[in-house]
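so my prof wants the structure for this chain in the tokens format not the other one, which i didnt know existed until like an hour ago. anyway here's the sequence
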Amino acid sequence: MQRLKRAGVDARELDAGVYSHRHVDHCGDLVPLLFTMKVGIDIRRQRDYPIWAGEGFNEFLADLRATYGHWLEGEGWTTQVTQLPLDGPGSGDLPGGVRLDTLPAVHSAGALHLKFSFGGKSLVFSGDTGPSENLVELACGVDLLVTECAIPEPDDYGGHLCPADVLDLLTRARPKRAVLTHFYPFVDEATAMATVAASGVPVERGYDGMELSLTPTRSSRAASS
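here's what i got, hopefully its the right format
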């Protein structure tokens, strides 16, 4: 909630939410978000809050409601979840004319790759994933790819990408730009960036509060941590 505030966004006025999967580092703010929407004093939400997420999210939300009860529901509005398939492509029409397309990721907890399209521009978010043919397909030629680069070497579990994996992804998908995120502390970021840059795709290191445009402009720092 604090980071939204710093970015000039009122959490109570969000149009929708899209979740890549149910691991706590990717959806842990859902409870305080819904609570904020409910208890607003000067501004009370007057419309339903739609969420798009992978199959299983309805059950996840039901468990949260069983724990927190009426604190997650407002007066005159509710949370509406559209579940997307984990065995093939999914899609949705988001508020504001944004198109969402998804494919399953190589991870757990209902993980999906997310593609957002609007006005002839496109952005893909990898979410958490191991090497994924679905991600190569979804990211092919997009304006911006935001991808994890969590580990230093290939992972036997297959749940995350290393720099060599991201290099292969960019070499094959050829997005116009890429931003790397989700570095675990034991990753040498300078080495990772140098490895991925060999693809020839312009690459940036993502940071908390980063503002991105789908046109090649200089990004600015809104907040950091």
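also thought this was worth mentioning. The chain has two domains: 1-84, 88-225.
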